[in-house]
Structure formats: C-alpha cells, structure tokens
C-alpha cells in the first residue's frame, strides 16, 4: 500500500510509553497521550510552559463557539458560521522555578525521561531528571480526569533533590483564561472572565452575532501539599498561587492539584455554577489521592472487563486495539444525549469538534457491541432532538423535509465547503441506517415506532424532493452530489447515495405500516406521498456495468484512466499532501469506501460474486486517506476469505494514529475511526453478523501471526465471550438468558 510509518512510542499491551522527549514530534507525542472522561479532555501537553513547538489544548464537552464563515464567493444557502470547539481555560497549568530559574524542557538539560499513558487506568505519567545551574532534580508527574467524578481533574507532582546542596523549588500553579485556538481568526480570545478569585475563575464565551448560546465555565482549584504558600496573584485573566520548598539532598516535595470544572450546560446561573464547583471541591477536599485514583480505576476496570479484546501473539495488534477502545471511552460514555462523538474528540482542534455522520455509520455499531443499548439510543436521540435544525438545512436549499447537517453542534449546519456541506447528502441515509441498525441489533422497536418514524418520514420527504425524474431514461436520479469518497465532488448518480435514498424510502414505508394509528396520524403522510415514494423505490437509477459486473461509483467514473494505487510513486503518498486538488479529482483514486461502504452496510443483501467483483475492482483504487476507510475494507476482505489482506487492513486501522499512517495525527487523534479495530476484529475476523430476523451468527478465523484472540460482546441483555484459537472457537454465555446463535451456519445453544 506504499505506507509510511512513524512510530515514536514503544509497543506494550497496556501502555503508550516512550523514554525520549521527541522535540521534533512533540505535537504527535501530545496527541497520542491525550486524556478524557467524556465530560472534558486534554492533549498530552506539559503542565509547565514549553518554549518549543507545542499545541496545548483542554476542551469541555458541548462547549463551542460560532466563528464567522469566511469564503471568497458567497453562495445562497451557506451557513452563517463555522462551529468550533474552543480551548478551555487552562486548568492544569503549573510552572516550576529551580533556585529561581524557570523549568523548560525545550532548553534545559534533561535525562531519564519517561512519558507513559497507562490505558488500563487512564493515567498519564511523566518523569525526568533536570540538571540546571549546577543542581539536579528529579520530577514525577501524574494526572487523570476522573470518571468517578466527571467534573474533577487531579494532578500530582513530586520532585526530589538529587544534588548534594539544598535546592529551592517554587511551584506557580494557575487557572489561566489567556488562551486561544491556534486556528482562530485574528488570534482572537473566546473567553471573557466574569469572576476571578485567588482559587477560582468563572468565564463566559464572548458574544456572537448568530444567536447561539454563550457558555459559562467555572473552575475552582484546591491543593494538598506540605509546601508553604508564599504568594497569590490575581489579574484580569489568570489567578495563581506560589508554593515553595527548600529541599535538602534527596528530600522530596509533593503537591496535588485538584480542579472542579463545571459548565452552564448543567447549571443555569452563575450562582448555581459557583455552588456546584464549591460543592465538588468540598466533597474531595479531605479525600486522599489514592482514594480518588482508586474510584477512577474501578470504573475503568469495569469498562475493560466488559469490552476488552485480548490478542495473544501480536503485541502490536494488542496495543492498537486497546488504544482504539481507550480513545472511544475517553471521548464518549453515553450518559448525556446532548453530546456526540467528534472526529478528534478532546485531542485537537481540527474538524471543529463537531458531530459528523461518522457517529451513525461507524460508532453506533461498536457501542451496540460494547455497551448497554441506552448509549446508542442516546446517540439517536441526539439527532431526534435536533430535527428542527434539519428542517432549516433543507429549507435553505429550497427542499422539503429534513436534511441532517454534515457538521453540527446544535442541529444547524456549520460547515462551509459547498461540495461537502450541500452535496454529501448521503448522511441522511446513514442516519436512517443507524435507526435500522439499532432496531435490528437490540430488538427494541420503541424508538423506530415513535421518534424514529418521525425522523424517517422527514428524511424521506427530503429524498423525494431531491431526486428528479429523467424522462429520457424513465428513472429517478440524483445529480450534483459527493459520496463518501470526497475525492470526487459534484458528481451525478453516486451509487451509494442513490442506493441509500432508495433504501430509506423503502424502510420508511415499511415502518409506516407498523406504527400505531395515532402515530401514523401525527406523521400526516398522505397516500399520494407514499405512492410517490414507492414509485421512486421502483424506478431509482443505480449505475451498473454489465461487462465488469460492478456497481459503478457514479456516472463517468469508468471513463477515468483506471490505474491501481500501486502505480503511484511512493514519494507521492499520501496524495492529499502531494497532489493538487485538480489532479486528485481527475484521478481514479478513492479516498475511502464508497460503493464498498454500501456493501458493508447491507452485507447480507449481496451475493458472493457481487462482493468479490466490487472489492476486487475498487480496493486496489483506494488510497485509504480517510481514517474511516481501512476498517470496512478489512471486514469485506475477511468476508471474502482474503485473510492476508484483512490482517493488513486491520493493522492499518488499529495502529492508524500510533504509527501515524496518514501523517496527520499531530493535529489530534482520529477518534471516530478508532471504531475500526473493533469492527475489523468482530465483524471481520470473527465474522459477526446480526440478521434481519435477529439471529446472531459468527464465522471466525484466526490470523496466522496470532495465537488466539478473545472478546466480549453485549447482545440483547446478554454478555457473550468469544475465544478463537488455532484448534477452533469457544462461545460462552457470561450473563443473561440462554441464546441460540449460529457458528459457521450451524446452530449452537449458549446456556
């Protein structure tokens, strides 16, 4: 595949660890050591100031700002603003003075450096020895964002004097609102401080011109330390306390920093916010570090116990899988239906931290398998609750019904590339598919027969207005779209888009036949409307080539100069970093699965011949420069018994960020594509399928380089454990009622 790999951390089953401060790849180090607890998160930047290249970032879930859309040529229907996650008040900041000289790992002489992200307990550790002005001091840092108390950040720093003479260590610890986003227009700041004291800050996002809510955040800090407090300073944007320790030779000083972080998403007034952060601070004031850490670790133990995937014989693969699951769990835990899963999570500013169709297409299938159904239902409710915004998006294009946004925080489209925002409309089908997928997997029809039926009806109204009838061909068509393959813009009759539009209309008609009489009346669908939808289903044009036996990605695709990716010189990969956009658009190269995405979605509905012909044609043309791409190809390769190809694609998806395959992880992790490891393993290697009749089936195989693998899967009130070894597979019912499954097309009763 012509892959270029950059591996800067050691390979270990539970840890992302290095013993090198890699100044050239500092941002990459920061991305790969990010933390989060679903409520807030941060990159792995240092607590103290670092004068070299760095991208500090702390982010609060659901807190964002509408930045004015800036385009050279305004088109009717453009969103007024581009929504972006904003850098939060820096609550982890701690600087250190050694005999009055500031610690700076970019310029100071350091040794014995260790940076260690412990994925099992979600703790980031760092240690080093610094030699400065004739003295030597060893520092140890630990920090975690509690999952037992989601509004709590905990840090612990210790320092040991390794010199013969005494050393003065000053710690200047701050809450700092003087922050900005690297990508902000005109270096603007987004926070206005409302209140500041010697231990707290309450700040509000600055006013905007778009009527979107302003957010307020409150942070209160408390310390546990034997160090002496000697000063505190409060200015307009920052509050700091200074502590001092005079350490004799081999004496150790320690300071713990605990910050309560609350936002106006949960508390209406500033008084409520203040009461909340003071209450949390008081609650943890007398609790030991060990107790706080233990409560946090217990939650993580339960998570891993339910969802860990164990791989014996390949530590690279094991680390990659756990890193994927860790990234998902640190981003989204499912308790809050107001939240969703941003493509970068809490690990960077790119993509604005907003919601994309990644959630429905890639995340929901994984969360169905690793968590209780309520988590996935909350993701569907997120879309239902934003239906009003979807009406506005359709209306701005002069169309009926509801068009869900490509990028959003609140249901209103806030992305400003025309080819994506207004042409990549397949997301309406992906959201419909997620409703079907949830219903099929869980057996729970309560959503689809109520909220889901409303969503499906309004999305179908959009599709029925967006298609046009070609009198010449006597078929319905959809022109001017972009499919999942964003290296093809403004095309006609993208197969995937047409296929999903037709399927959505068909599925909606089916559900309308199942809803209650009251619900049907509320939906107000006329017989004429339903007849029209059926006509579209019957006459939708789906491009197909008889000679090749393939579904054609879109009209004109086969007129390109079809050459495989292997013909591209390796020094020109990835093409999105070496070629002009014009050259990419004219090429046959596919960013991510497009036709194959549709086949993956509905894998039971295609024959072995159809799957093979399409995979053999399209996969060699796919550059996988979307992080979402390798996983679905791994599943299809496994389904076709292309075992070696499936393993190669698994390795690419599971270690995409750890090995920086697309040379863009320095911006932040690819959180939504961290679903890829689970999908490739469970749907791919284990061949897990849930069929329309609710039957759960498997067709497992073991990659040659592995000794075994095992995983647990949540399914309809049960937890099932699957182990695949060289001599066969074992299936165990861990909890729940007996269940009959199929293994290699034969029934097996789990008791």
UniProtKB/TrEMBL annotation:
Residues 688-748 form the Glycoside hydrolase family 65 C-terminal domain. Residues 18-265 form the Glycoside hydrolase family 65 N-terminal domain. InterPro entries: 6-hairpin_glycosidase_sf, 6hp_glycosidase-like_sf, Gal_mutarotase_sf_dom, GH65_N, Glyco_hydro_65_C, Glyco_hydro_65_M, Glyco_hydro_65_N, Malt_Pase/Glycosyl_Hdrlase. The active site is at 486 (proton donor). Substrate binds at residues 357-358, 591-592. GO terms for biological process: carbohydrate metabolic process. Residues 322-678 form the Glycoside hydrolase family 65 central catalytic domain. It comes from the Bacteria. GO terms for molecular function: carbohydrate binding; glycosyltransferase activity; hydrolase activity, hydrolyzing O-glycosyl compounds. Belongs to the glycosyl hydrolase 65 family. This is Maltose phosphorylase. It comes from Companilactobacillus paralimentarius DSM 13238 = JCM 10415. The lineage of its organism: Bacteria, Bacillati, Bacillota, Bacilli, Lactobacillales.
């Amino acid at each position: 595949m012509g892959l270029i790999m950059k591996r800067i951390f050691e390979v270990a089953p539970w840890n992302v660890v290095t013993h090198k401060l890699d100044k050239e790849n500092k941002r990459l180090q920061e991305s790969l050591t990010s933390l989060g607890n679903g409520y807030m998160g941060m990159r792995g930047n240092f607590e103290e100031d670092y004068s070299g290249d760095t991208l500090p970032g702390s982010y609060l879930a659901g807190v964002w700002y509408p930045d004015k859309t800036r385009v050279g040529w305004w088109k009717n229907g453009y969103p007024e603003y581009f929504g972006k996650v904003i850098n939060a008040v820096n609550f982890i900041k701690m600087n250190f003075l050694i005999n009055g000289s500031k610690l700076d790992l970019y310029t100071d002489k350091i040794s014995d450096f260790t940076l260690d992200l412990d994925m099992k307990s979600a703790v980031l550790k760092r240690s080093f020895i610094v030699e400065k002005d004739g003295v030597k001091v060893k520092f140890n840092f630990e920090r975690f964002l509690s999952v037992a108390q989601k509004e709590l950040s905990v840090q612990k720093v210790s320092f040991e004097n390794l010199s013969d003479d005494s050393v003065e260590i000053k710690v200047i610890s701050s809450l700092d609102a003087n922050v900005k986003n690297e990508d902000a227009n005109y270096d603007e700041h987004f926070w206005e401080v409302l209140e500041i004291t010697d231990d707290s800050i309450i700040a509000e996002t600055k006013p905007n011109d778009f009527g979107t809510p302003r957010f307020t955040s409150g942070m209160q800090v408390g310390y546990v330390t034997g160090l002496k407090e000697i000063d505190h300073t409060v200015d307009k944007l920052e509050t700091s306390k200074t502590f001092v320790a005079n350490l004799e030779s081999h004496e150790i000083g320690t300071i713990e920093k605990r910050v309560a972080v609350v936002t106006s998403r949960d508390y209406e007034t500033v008084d409520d916010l203040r009461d909340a952060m003071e209450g949390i601070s008081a609650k943890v004031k007398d609790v030991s570090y060990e107790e706080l850490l233990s409560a946090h670790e217990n939650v993580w133990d339960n998570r891993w116990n339910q969802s860990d995937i164990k791989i014996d014989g390949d530590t690279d693969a094991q680390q990659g899988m756990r890193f994927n699951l860790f990234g998902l769990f640190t981003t989204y835990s499912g308790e809050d239906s107001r939240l969703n899963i941003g493509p970068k999570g809490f690990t960077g500013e790119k993509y604005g931290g907003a919601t994309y169709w990644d959630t429905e297409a890639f995340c929901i299938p994984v969360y169905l398998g690793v968590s209780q159904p309520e988590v996935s239902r909350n993701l569907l409710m997120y879309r239902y609750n934003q239906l009003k915004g979807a009406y506005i998006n359709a209306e701005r294009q002069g169309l009926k019904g509801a068009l869900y946004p490509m990028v959003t925080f609140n249901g209103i489209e806030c992305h400003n590339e025309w080819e994506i925002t207004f042409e990549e409309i397949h997301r309406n089908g992906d959201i419909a598919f997620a409703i079907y997928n949830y219903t099929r997997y869980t057996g729970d029809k309560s959503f689809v027969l109520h909220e889901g039926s409303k969503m499906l009806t309004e999305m179908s109204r959009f599709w029925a207005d967006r298609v046009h009838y070609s009198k010449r061909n006597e078929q319905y068509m959809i022109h001017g779209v972009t499919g999942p393959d964003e290296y093809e813009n403004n095309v006609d009759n993208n197969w995937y888009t047409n296929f999903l539009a037709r399927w959505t209309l068909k599925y909606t008609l089916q559900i309308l036949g199942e809803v209650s009489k009251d619900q049907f009346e509320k939906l107000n669908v006329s017989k004429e409307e339903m007849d029209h939808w059926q006509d579209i289903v019957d006459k939708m044009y789906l491009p197909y080539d008889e000679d090749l036996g393939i579904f054609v990605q879109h009209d004109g695709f086969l007129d390109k100069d079809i050459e495989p990716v292997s013909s591209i010189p390796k020094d020109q990969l990835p093409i999105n970093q070496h070629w002009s956009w014009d050259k990419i658009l004219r090429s046959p190269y596919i960013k991510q699965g497009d036709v194959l995405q549709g086949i993956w979605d509905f894998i039971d509905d295609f024959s072995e011949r159809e799957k093979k012909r399409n995979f053999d044609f399209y996969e060699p043309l796919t550059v996988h420069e979307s992080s979402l791409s390798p996983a679905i190809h791994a599943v299809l390769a496994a389904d076709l018994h292309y075992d070696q190809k499936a393993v190669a694609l698994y390795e690419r998806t599971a270690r995409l960020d750890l090995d920086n395959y697309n040379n863009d992880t320095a911006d932040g992790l690819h959180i939504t594509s961290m679903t890829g490891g689970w999908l490739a393993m469970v749907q791919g290697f284990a061949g897990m399928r849930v069929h329309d009749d609710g039957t759960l089936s498997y067709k497992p195989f073991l990659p040659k380089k592995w000794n075994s693998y095992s995983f647990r899967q949540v399914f309809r009130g049960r937890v099932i454990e699957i182990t695949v070894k060289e001599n066969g597979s074992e299936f165990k019912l861990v909890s729940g009622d007996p269940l009959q499954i199929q293994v290699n097309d034969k029934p097996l009763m789990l008791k």
